[in-house]
Batch of 2 targets.
Target 1
Amino acid sequence: MPHRTTRHIGAALLTAALAGCTEAPPPPPARSEAARPDPLPGVQLGLDALRQQMFHVGAGRRLKPASWPGGGRVAVGLSFDVDNATATLSTGTLDYEVISRGEYGAVDGVPRLLRLLDRQQVPASFFIPAVSLELHPQMIKAIQASPLAHEVGVHGWIHERLPVLDNEQEERRLLDQSIETLTRLVGKRPVGYRAPSWKFSTFTLGQIVAAGFLYDSSLMASDDAYEIQLDGKPTGLVELPIERILDDFPYFGGNADGSNPSLGDVYEVFQSEFDVAYQEGGLFLLTLHPHLSGHRSRAAMLERLIAYMKGKPGVWFATHEQIARHVKALMKE
Ligand SMILES: [Zn+2]
């Protein structure tokens, strides 16, 4: 019915014109195939371009010592990413159910884990977004009250996802702010860096090398420590590799959202990873979040794991900084 269609379009134009008196209507969304971002740009690239992308951030020299201090067979580094509610706050999502779940990390998680570490006499590394520490400064008092000399490392300003920020200047500003804030609150300049959500932008590696960090712990190209390369060139920066397998988040947070009821399954994965590291003479780095693993049942699981590892001879428990300093010496050989 052409007549009705014409009238309909006319009415729409009239509405648009009237709306234009105050505010222009938004343009219609692009529908053509050409307007969409290419979902598979990699298929158009030649090998040189792919090589450049692949090795912008790459694994260099393996840093595997013949033995660890004290003749240890395996180095164990426990790290706690103290995100609490910052990842949620960074998105502006004021969902207080989720925010309070993060707050648990400061209220009960960190204190319980610190008590556990004291009981077991095991030092750890805490990677803390600067805002997380500003919002709950009692955490640094508690960390520093322990005689174990725990380490504090950088974990972003507000757990900003750097590839989403995708802005070189802003990223540098937030990195500088994070270093300054942690230096002031901790009383010592941090030497370790861990990217929020472990995600680098294309600017991150260049910026953390320029900032003079001893090590990064955001990548996972090996089970052993290695020297990171930037565009194929050695940087002198030690990578202490993490892994999603050795992280509580996929099991208890994120998509699992606490739905994984089997602590035994998670324990078995962690213990098997440790057993092979012990057998091969390697490195065992575990990443936990106080707002997830600071809960009673999960902290009990961690304590069981620590007790198991302590039951073997030749296990060196150390902070990430101590491990990085030990393997950094291999770069001079
Ligand atoms: Zn984090």
Target 2
Amino acid sequence: MTVTAIDNRADREEAAKNVYSNAGITVDKLGEHIGARISGVRLGGDVPAEQAEAIRLALAVNKVVVFTDQQHLDDDGQYAFAELLGEPTLPHPTVTSRGSQLLTIEGAANSWHTDVSFVDRVPKASILRAVTLPSWGGATTWASTVAAYEQLPAPLRALVDGLWAKHSNFYDYVTADPDAGDEETRRRVDHYREFTSAEYETLHPVVRVHPETGERSLLLGHFVKEFPALKPAEFGPLFQLLQNRITRLENTFRWNWSLGDVAIWDNRATQHYGIADFGGQKRELHRITLAGDVPVGIDGESSRIISGDASHYSGVEEARRLGVYAA
Ligand SMILES: O=C(O)CCC(=O)C(=O)O
Ligand SMILES: [Fe+2]
């Protein structure tokens, strides 16, 4: 990264600090590229508008923000708070059996992904609340897809800047877990069946421009099936090369959950992974996703639907550039 870019980022973070202190919240940065803890807020539908705005900014700057000690929050409170940050989507385009407002995550989503990237209107953010936790393990890790893009050497940037990827909900990551019992295997198969009960395929630019920050990020993750411009045999190695750069430990932020914790991630600037290291213990988290825009590549071209209509699942947000990111 150039010195100018670092200066700009430092200036932006300074400007953001004024917004936080005017709103009476504290934002503690927890990593160089990603992650911060916000304190001074009691989450719910009655968060003042100024605080909600400051939280939106902290999210854009830090990509993931966590709140602790929110034990008072229930599903309705989580939903009412979500509405202050955007327009909640349905829980999922195809998974309807796990609640009508929130998606219940049971177990852990242990593969790197950006949420619901197989539709055209990829959600802008997810709000996750711990409901039942194992006594060990079960952390969630996020990776900054902006940092990964910014770290690409020029020849790799040239390679990805014009590349498109096909995302599909027919993912192939439900391989049998050798430790899973019969019931767990049945649960996974049922879930996969529901997940794929309608087919969604979308072409997204591999490099998207964030509508609120103008930052470029890599839009990939486990729903990607193909780079249509390349041969099938070339897909795996290039996909893995880029995923390895995204998930470099320096670009990640890991959170060990306690009850009362809430995490929000900018789904336009991150991937995440739920770590399945808690044996057979119960783990349950409740998620709300917020409507996002249709991604736009560097050349101004928008993502294109190949199959599936997600309009029942989510509106399309008209996003605007945030003040401190003004060009
Ligand atoms: O299991 C986890 O920690 C992550 C769950 C997840 O992928 C999600 O909530 O979107
Ligand atoms: Fe997820």
